[in-house]
Design a protein that fits this description.
This protein has one domain: Rossmann fold (3-Layer(aba) Sandwich). 51% of the residues lie in helices and 16% in strands. It contains nine helices and eight strands. The strands form two sheets. The chain has a five-stranded parallel sheet with strand order 2-6-1-7-8. It has a three-stranded antiparallel sheet with strand order 3-4-5, covered by helices on one side. α1 crosses α9. The mean pLDDT is 95. Bound molecules: cytidine-5'-monophosphate. The site of cytidine-5'-monophosphate has 15 residues, from α2, α4 and α8.
Length: 226
């Protein structure tokens, strides 16, 4: 079973997808982590997306997601673990820029499908989240969701996440709001695989929903689809 959850930053996709996957004994496929890993390669090499070195940098990148023995998702860039290093706002911003490059989307498409095939064979199901998982990556998914929330609420949640990270100083709420607004506009307006609600997706507005309500809403539909 393939389940997709798309939506803008801070809508609650990743925490919900992770919880749903865990409760269903499925695997959680964080497609944003793949874009972030590519972005980290650009940040580390100090290459901008328009740089002529971008293509060579991309073709030298190997990206993979693996679960360790404890069941924790590990993100690998050129065989080095970058699970925590990709979670900065700088990398998030760069991810949104590299995600607009056709060569990046083209390179990550088979990676996402191969991971989903590998994992769904071993567990019976994958919950993928991102911006185009229901429209482009898995158009034949069994169930599709589109999660959204007000900008204010999404900024508040993202800010809370930054505050709970002991390794990074949390940016002010206004800066987080601006970052989210900028990234959303970029994701919605790009020519290739823009963020949009798949026609056959179930919409969930999480602005006033608790986390438990979000998970239950999705699980109820999975049970019905089984
Ligand atoms: O979900 P997350 O915030 O980690 O994603 C980082 C960026 O990666 C997004 O802003 C978006 O530009 C890009 N992305 C994408 N398609 C996906 C997942 C993420 O373009 N399926």
């Amino acid at each position: 079973m393939i389940i997709t959850i798309d939506g803008p930053a801070g809508a609650g996709k990743s925490s919900t997808a992770r919880a749903v996957a865990e409760r269903q004994s499925f695997r959680y496929l964080d497609t944003g982590a793949l874009y972030r890993a590519v972005a980290l390669a650009f940040v580390e090499a100090e290459v901008t997306p328009t740089d002529e070195k971008a293509e060579a940098l991309l073709s030298d990148c190997t990206i993979d997601l693996q679960f360790d023995d404890a069941g924790t998702l590990r993100v690998l860039l050129n065989d080095a673990e970058v699970t925590d290093a990709i979670r900065t706002s700088e990398v998030g911003d760069m991810a949104s820029q590299v995600a607009a490059l056709p060569a990046v989307r083209e390179a990550l498409l088979p990676v996402q499908r191969q991971i989903a095939t590998r994992w769904s064979q071993s567990t019976g199901g994958v919950v993928a989240d991102g911006r185009d998982t229901g429209t482009v990556v898995f158009p034949q998914a069994d169930l599709k969701f589109f999660m959204d929330a007000s900008l204010e609420e999404r900024a508040r949640r993202r800010h809370e996440e930054y505050q709970s990270d002991p390794n990074e100083e949390a940016p002010p709420l206004e800066a987080v709001r601006d970052e989210i607004r900028r990234r959303d506009a970029h994701d919605r307006e790009r020519a290739l695989a823009p963020l949009r609600r798949p026609d056959d997706a179930v919409s969930i507005d999480t602005t006033s929903m608790t986390f438990e309500e979000q998970v239950e809403a999705i699980e109820a539909l999975i049970e019905r689809a089984k």
